[in-house]
Amino acid sequence: MARRKARRVKDKWKGKQWYRLIAPEFFGSAEIGSTIADDPQKVIGRTVEITLASLINDYSNQNDYKKLTFQVSNVSGDMAYTRLTKFEMTRDYMTSLVRRRTSMIGDVIDLKTRDGYTLRIKPVAFTIKRCQSSQKREIRRVIRDTIVKRASELDFVQFIQELVLGKIASDVYKSAKTIYPLRRVEIRKLEILSEPKLQHIEEKAEATA
Length: 209
Prior knowledge:
There is one protein chain. By secondary structure, this protein is an alpha+beta fold. The chain folds into two domains: 2-89; 97-199, Band 7 domain (Tetrahydropterin Synthase, Chain A, 2-Layer Sandwich). It contains eight helices and nine strands. The protein has helices at residues 2-13, 52-56, 61-64, 91-96, 133-153, 156-164, 167-176, 196-208; strands at residues 17-22, 31-37, 47-51, 66-76, 79-89, 104-106, 109-112, 118-127, 182-194. Strands 1, 2, 3, 4, 5, 6, 7, 8 and 9 form a nine-stranded mixed β-sheet that branches. Helix 5 packs across helix 7 (167-176). It is elongated, with a radius of gyration of 21 Å.
């Protein structure tokens, strides 16, 4: 009985191979995990989530609450290459920023980078004290204008690097704090909605339909 069970376990792993998950080049092509499969095609589409601290091997507090999600897009040998699909702040960190008698001003912005990537950005600003509705609207407008303008000036890689490292949030803070004193600005979430090549194929298919 024990021998048959051992054989079944052995058969289960027979023919399977481990694949190393590799981050995009603009994240240093770092190894971010591993996965196993009996066919390389089954690896494509799998996702892995990792903190920025683990990705860049810098465990300072500011990197520990930033999470990135990568998806396998191509396999070569035992290397599974990934693309970034999402960036977000941890829920615990965002909860820690909420204060009584202050205002939290969020937005959802769909935009395009200079090289045609379509992104969904979810910024949020926290005021020092509670502000009026008119001030919230003006802060939200400044946040949107600042982020959209910056995206139009940068290509995808440049924009992602500035966002992940906090420069986009810093630029927003400097622009919006003139309207009402702010305590903090963060980009709480980013999603990649479409890439230029995929978008072109979709538009072509719609045109011929």
